[in-house]
Amino acid sequence: MRSIWNGAISFGLVSIPIKLVNATESHSISFRQIHTEDMGRIRYRKVCELEDREVSTSEIGKGYEDADGTIIPITDEDLAHLPLPTAKTIEIVAFVPADRIDPLQMDAAYYLAAGGAPAAKPYTLLREALKRSNKVAIAKYALRGRERLGMLRVVEDAIAMHGLLWPDEVRAPQGLAPDTKVTINDKELDLADALMDTLGEIDLDDLHDEYREALEEVVAAKAAGEAPPQTPEPARGGKVLDLMAALEKSVRAAKESRGEEEAPGEEEAREHAEVRPLPARKSARATPKQAGGKKSTSTAKKSTAAKKTTAAKKTTAKSAQGARKTASAGGTGTASARSTAAKKTTAKKTPAKKTAARKRTA
């Protein structure tokens, strides 16, 4: 890989010669601008507005336009003598935990290659120190006409540097969150957690640029004089009005895509997980219906109690009839039995027994 910058890492009193190499590359498909009538290329030409002629690259330099429109020429020699210690040096200023770095600050990524045999030992020392500390190095460096902030970390056996935006270059997300007050209940959070668990993790190496692949198919078909492939019909989904139903349906779809079977009871829940409009408002009638149900339960209890009372009365009546028969058959001894039965009947205070006792007294 070709280096784009040569310099050194300043690590306290240690200096490590390094070469800066791009860690990423673009695979995007680029287009040319053409004249649609004759397919001629449309090119941009660099023209001097004072002389009205095209100029070559060797004639082009840098200049800063002042507020009043004055152009101040800046040469490569001027940039080479900037009064900065980071002009040709990546100066490490601190070591911090990796989670202190906000991903919003991440910019371009580079690899730092050791610059020759003398750099091997200090390069390895810095790499192993970063590994053991579980920290990253914060550094300042100058590249392409400006001083930048960077983060050094270990990637396999190499040291990588991520360009960082300065803190004042990251905008605050003020006014972006919803203004409407929303309440999220525990069941909705549980379903969201279940969906996250079902989707699980993925190996990032399995991901690829489907847009680029589709674009390559279109280019190949056009080159062969064939019709480009048709866009597949997007799946039609219902309008999501019920968040709970949408979450349940998403969990089920994720499980199906991973070949997982439904757990017992999920088939019944699935029927209620369809994304559908919310039912018409009938909540005002829900309370009277519940009240009616309670009345029905109370009536049932009263009916049961009435049945028990009737059964007790029948049993008492049978006992009284048995006592009368014994009295008529037993004479004097029976009188004692009648007296005992009368006392029992009075103790229970059953209307039927009181009636029987009055008849026996008469």
TrEMBL record:
Record-linked CDD domains: KU_like
Biased composition, class Low complexity, residue ranges: 294-344
Basic and acidic residues biased stretches: 251-275
Keywords: DNA damage, DNA recombination, DNA repair, DNA-binding
InterPro entries, alphabetized: DNA_bd_Ku70/Ku80, Prok_Ku, SPOC-like_C_dom_sf
GO molecular function: double-stranded DNA binding
GO BP annotation list: DNA recombination; double-strand break repair via nonhomologous end joining
Protein name: Non-homologous end joining protein Ku
Source species: Streptomyces resistomycificus
Gene giving rise to this polypeptide: ku
